[in-house]
TrEMBL record:
Ranges where the DDH domain occurs: 81-233
Protein name in the entry: Single-stranded-DNA-specific exonuclease RecJ
Keywords (A to Z) from UniProt: Exonuclease, Hydrolase, Nuclease
InterPro entries linked to this entry: DDH_dom (IPR001667), DHH_sf (IPR038763), DHHA1_dom (IPR003156), RecJ (IPR004610), RecJ_C (IPR018779), RecJ_OB (IPR041122), SSDNA_exonuclease_RecJ (IPR051673)
Gene3D superfamilies per the UniProt record, alphabetical: 3.10.310.30, 3.90.1640.30
Domain annotation RecJ OB: ranges: 461-564
Organism annotation: Leuconostoc fallax
Xref: NCBIfam families: recJ
Entry annotated with the keyword Disulfide bond: no
Family: Belongs to the RecJ family.
Single-stranded-DNA-specific exonuclease RecJ C-terminal domain location: 574-654
GO biological process, any: DNA repair
Length: 658
């Protein structure tokens, strides 16, 4: 293997693999990957492969859980008016739904408030708290937020209303003076697992409330009807799918498959989910979460909560239709803003910037994070997207590789009006007059910035003709996949390709039909127009991919999802003229790509060395076929036809290759 970005994981001790396979009755392939994940003894491997309620922790171990449960029960049985203060993303919506359903079971007088992203902002809002209390709230319970709500909590306290905070976000040195703070990482707490999401914390409260503090030893004692909500929120919030989260998500996905909520049924139908297609973690990530998050991105997220809570079929169908329409609107807005941001990102003005700071007037605030992620994918640079409205800029940033964007941008705190986030994602606002200053500060640090691409970790090299349904089924034992439990990745070295085609309106996707004696297997790569010249010009290709399935018109087929490809050159693979033809075609299709910044990537995609690629471009320059403008190689329209041999550089190169 010569691809620098593929990191082949060490093979486990064969004796360990044999013992796991024998004692757990699993395939050697599965045993190998289980061992690579660190589960090298039969007991830990069994617990990993068989998540069960015995692995759940006692909710009473959470900080202030005893106070929270007692106060909630007193409020419920005493007829106090309880208001749940939620959040507008899917973790916040599911947290609200779990807390609402748990209190409703107790017969509480309970309602909820979902803040508006644009009017209320994130977290406790003092003005909203005042209005809730004015309208009769006697107890406020936060879910998926609260630990930064100093002013709002103090306001409620001054008005004689208790606030119970349930949250999982980063803790500041000083916390609000709430009645109780239930948080898995509270400095005075002793909870054995610190990576619950907001809905995970809400579920632990529900578990404690409904079990009355008694130990749970059987699945029937859990509020299983809420586990689907837990799975959706935890997957959407990308928390670690290990320890307790793995149990909660596993049980929740089972609940979604066995007895899905009406709203989710209709949501998935609108998303094109086949009737025989199981709901797995990727279903939540790519079909459910984007749709329900779109509601909060575009306007009032309460619609999403109504859909989650609805048990009426007609109402659920109507709500799901409305959500689908909003999601389509979100997609259109994303494409418009992305197109404008992409033009800026690829322009000469930003070509030397290691961190992109892009702004536009009245770009929709709700989708800036999505656009930032897509620009990062395109440019391989950390990106901050800002929207200007009047004299204020608001924006979101996403990092690239292992670069800590939060720590870097925190250097300029005095420039912002608001700032927050973590290593891979930030949010900020600033005045228009501060933008130029921020750009200068970032550019001054340009030489100190090192961007390192995260390698793709590969489990094994796998011959493509060994892929069959039993291979796929053996890997499903490792589900649910997600953060800290990634789907296994395999190298497929020079598989026999029967056919290579492109897909999509812009021909931006590729599909390979592979020769396989056991079953039909396709390999697909989405949103990679740069792969098109590689797969259509040569069959000598290796790639890394995960193994999944595709459902189309009721038929299930195996499908490899390609993560990266590598052209494998051989002595008689590509002639000199083919090399020049492939490169010219690539340049024509990628006029917005800065070659100077991406020479190694382009060379890899074309199966050439960097030095060979430079020679080819030099020949095109000599012949007047292209021009170079600030690192961008541009085709010269209607250039006179000339033979390659008219270039002295070409003749030297040709003789050298011969």
């Amino acid at each position: 293997m010569t691809q620098n970005n593929w990191k082949i994981l060490p093979k486990p001790n064969p004796k360990v693999v044999d013992e796991l396979a024998s004692r757990l009755d699993i395939s050697r392939l599965t045993a190998t990957i289980v061992a690579q994940k660190g589960y090298t003894d039969a007991e830990s491997a069994y617990q990993y492969l068989s998540p069960s309620i015995e692995q759940l922790h006692d909710p009473m171990l959470l900080h202030d859980m005893d106070k929270a449960v007692e106060r909630l029960q007193d409020a419920a049985f005493g007829g106090e008016k309880i208001v749940i203060y939620g959040d507008y993303d899917l973790d916040g919506l599911t947290s609200t739904a779990v807390m609402y359903e748990a209190l409703a079971i107790l017969g509480a007088d309970v309602s909820y408030y979902i803040p508006n992203r644009f009017n209320d902002g994130y977290g406790p809002n003092k003005a909203v708290y005042q209005k809730l209390i004015q309208d009769g709230a006697q107890l406020i319970v936060t879910v998926d937020n609260g630990v930064t709500g100093y002013d709002a909590v103090n306001c409620a306290k001054a008005l004689g209303v208790d606030v119970i905070i349930t949250d999982h976000h980063e803790l500041a040195p000083t916390l609000p003076e709430a009645y109780a703070i239930v948080h898995p990482r509270h400095p005075e707490g002793h909870y054995p697992f610190n990576d619950l999401s907001g809905v995970g914390v809400a579920f632990k409260v529900a578990q404690a409330l409904l079990s009355d503090g008694e130990a749970i030893t059987d699945i029937s004692q859990l509020p299983t009807e809420m586990l689907d909500l837990v799975a959706m929120g935890e997957i959407a919030d990308m928390v670690s799918l290990t320890d307790e989260n793995r149990v909660l998500v596993s049980l929740g996905l089972k609940q979604m498959n066995d007895s899905p909520r009406p709203g989710i049924q209709y949501l998935l139908k609108n998303a094109g989910q086949a009737k025989n297609q199981p709901v797995i973690s990727e279903t939540v990530s790519f079909k459910i979460a984007p749709r329900l998050n779109a509601v909060g991105r575009m306007g009032d997220a309460s619609l999403g909560l109504d859909l989650l809570l609805s048990q009426d079929l007609d109402e659920s169908k109507a709500l799901a239709k409305e959500v689908e329409a909003i999601n389509k609107q979100r997609q259109e807005v994303v494409e418009k803003v992305f197109s404008e941001a992409k033009s800026l990102a690829l322009s000469p003005q930003y070509q030397n910037d290691k961190i992109l700071l892009l702004s536009g007037e009245n770009w929709h605030e709700g989708i800036l994070g999505i656009v930032a992620s897509r620009i990062v994918e395109l440019t391989k640079k950390p990106t901050i997207i800002l929207s200007q409205k009047d004299d204020i800029l608001k924006g979101s940033g996403r990092s690239y590789g292992a670069f800590d964007l939060y720590q870097f941008m925190a250097l300029f705190r005095d420039t912002y009006t608001t700032f927050g986030g973590h290593a891979s994602a930030i949010g900020l606002s600033l005045s228009v007059t501060s933008l130029a200053t921020l750009r200068e500060k970032i550019k001054a640090k340009n030489s100190t910035i090192t961007l390192v691409t995260k390698p793709i970790e590969v489990n094994l090299l796998l011959p493509s003709d060994t892929i069959n349904n039993s291979t796929y089924e053996s890997l499903t034992l490792l589900e649910p996949f997600g953060t800290d439990n990634q789907r296994p990745v395999f190298v497929f070295e020079e598989p026999k390709i029967m056919n290579a085609t492109t897909m999509g309106n812009l021909k931006q996707h590729v599909k390979l039909s592979l020769a396989n004696l056991q079953s039909d297997v396709e390999a697909v790569g989405f949103n990679h127009p740069d792969w098109v010249p590689v797969v259509t010009q040569s069959t000598n290709i290796s790639f890394v991919a995960t193994i999944g399935t595709n459902y189309f018109r009721g038929r299930q087929t195996l499908q490899l999802m390609m993560l990266d490809i590598k052209h494998v050159a051989s002595n008689d693979d590509i002639t000199v003229k083919q090399r020049f033809a492939m490169t010219y075609k690539y340049i024509m299709q990628h006029q917005s790509l800065n070659f100077a910044h991406h020479l190694p990537d382009v060379a890899s995609q074309l199966g050439a060395s960097v030095s060979d690629l430079k020679v080819v471009v030099q020949v095109f320059l000599e012949l007047g076929f292209v021009k170079i403008d600030n690192g961008f190689v541009k085709i010269i329209e209607n250039a006179p036809q000339k033979a390659l041999s008219q270039s002295t550089t070409y003749l030297r190169y040709f003789n050298k290759v011969k």
